Amino acid sequence: MDAPKAPARPAPALPASASPTPASPAPAPPASGASRSALGELDLRVAGCGACARLVAWREEVARTKRAAFADWTYWGRPVPGFGPPDARLLIVGLAPAAHGGNRTGRMFTGDRSGDVLYQALYDVGLASQPTAVSVDDGLELYGVRITSPVHCAPPANRPTPGERDTCRPWLVQELRLLRPTLRAVVVLGAFGWQAALPAFAEAGWTVPRPRPAFAHGTRVPLPAPDLPREPGGRKDGLDGAEGPGGVEVFGCFHVSQRNTFTGRLTPAMLREVLSTAAGVAGLT
Ligand code: SF4
Question: Which side of the chain, N or C, has fewer Cβ within a 10 Å radius?
Fold first, then answer.
């Protein structure tokens, strides 16, 4: 079912210094509770990025032409920054915003069927305040979880090119560096996200095995980071020794795309299982 309609809203203003590569004067990203943090500043810069000409043209074209069901929306039409608290212990990495989902609402996985599945599962395992995500002002909160993607702009046919993935990687690397004092577990949705995320983890300071581990649903890969300072008080679950202080455990999970969820390749139970296991490793449950 498509997300409920919301009244058209004017795009808010963004500080002029927000973007290193502005496509045009950019609006502020949706509030995420991190607006005064370094991560909030990063979100502002992401939202103003215009580095990929093909994706800039596509996201703006979609925002202009719209889907009939959302004709009364003012589409976001810009890069969609990560969503969730700056001290998240669990990170979920997707692929890229959907043309009429995140690209419309301005928040990760918000307003599309993939998000319906993801947020329902997060709510079911106690990591979200509500099971639905329809707009930036719907009141949704995530508990210790942040959601991001290796490509922040909606791509045609949901397929970014390798060049666009690589161009966007520095944003993910910066996000990981800002999260690493608290980050303990990561769920990567799908093979594209997996291939994009592992190099970003390496660049952000974690030790990634070589050859890089292949993506599979349910796979778990510990990434040590022995050079990172230990979180005050240590991990809540006392497992600092498993990956070393500052280490993270990365989980593979099939993407919550309709192709996977409609066919039963990824069931709600499978998704809940990965999320709850990762939340346990992160010390959230
Ligand atoms: S995909 Fe990433 S690098 Fe490319 S324009 Fe969007 S935010 Fe910028």
Answer: N
